[in-house]
Amino acid sequence: MAETVTNQEPKAFGFEPYNAASDEEYMSPAQEEHFRLILLAWKQSLMEEVDRTVHHMQDEATNFPDPNDRATQESEFSLELRTRDRERKLIKKIDEAMARITEHEYGYCEACGVEIGVRRLEARPTATLCIDCKTLDEIREKQRG
After folding, report:
1. pLDDT band at 70, cuts 50/70/90?
2. For residue 124, is pLDDT > 80?
């Protein structure tokens, strides 16, 4: 029998959007497992990228006699290290999200306590604020300068 092809695009790491049953409770065990798997896959991908960077920097480290070549290499390495630092911070956020899943607090806004929403969490699995609180937070941030 032929497979049915849907028009939905697969989400990050090949995960399909979660389709809750009409009577399913928000952040049911199945939903928590869905997000736990997404977060684990994301973390694994970031960890693999860290390993690739380490090997790349070890393999490509050359003492170029030309100052311009050295400067280019240092600039490239600096950019890679800044990217890895951002990813390190993201891994910390992923770990915090995993802890919230374990504590059954995942998916609820830290500011007001309302449901963040499955679709928002699929787009940003580390989200801690609902869209309204996040919007207010961004407005306050802009006002501060």
Report:
1. confident
2. yes
Nearest to 107 by CA among 8, 50, 10, 39: 39
For position 4, what pLDDT does the model report? 34
Tokens read off for 83: 């990217």
- The Cα-based distances of 91 to 83, 85, 95, 145 in angstroms read 12, 10, 6, 28
